[in-house]
Amino acid sequence: MKAAGEEGMEGVSAFEAYVHRAFAPDGLFSRARDFEYREEQQSMALAVARALQVDAPLLVEAGTGVGKSLGYLLPAVKFALDFDRKAVISTHTINLQEQLFNKDIPLLRTALGIDFSAALLTATDSTAAAQVSGTITMVKEEGRWKASAITLNL
User: Fold this and answer.
1) Residues 6+ apart with CB under 8 A from 13
2) For residues 115 and 106, what is the distance between their CA atoms, to the nearest angstrom?
3) CB 153 within 8 A of CB 132
4) What is the pLDDT of residues 67-112, one digit of tens each?
């Protein structure tokens, strides 16, 4: 008999299995304060992991309290670290940006045991932000990606 959250895991990649296991009742987050197993969160995280692996778009709708932030953040960060890529998370609200940066990312660093780099870029005027384009040049130094130049086209 399989434990909760272990059904249907045949034929998945090691990356997908890791993400799925992280959200299991006794997984990576189980020692975190206020963690509770949510099947919807685990399913969402697995869908994100699969989409990242095959470079496919994914649209997810989930209600309040499902744990969407960690459900997309863990697979994105783990994929970026495992496959030497970068992850960019874009939000609609400054409140969610602050939650990700001040709560979820530190929790993820602790859970993974990896001090990965993260940066927060905010704009206070959505009209101005929509009209700005540019590039961020990243370099890898001592195993960590860091911004070396930011060019904005206003």
Assistant:
1) 53
2) 9
3) yes
4) 899 999 999 999 999 988 888 888 878 888 889 989 999 999 998 8
| pTM attached to this predicted model | 0.74
**Which pLDDT belongs to residue 27?**
92
Residue of 1 and 86 predicted with greater confidence: 86
Distance (Å) of CA 76 to CA 14, 40, 49, 126: 15, 17, 7, 25
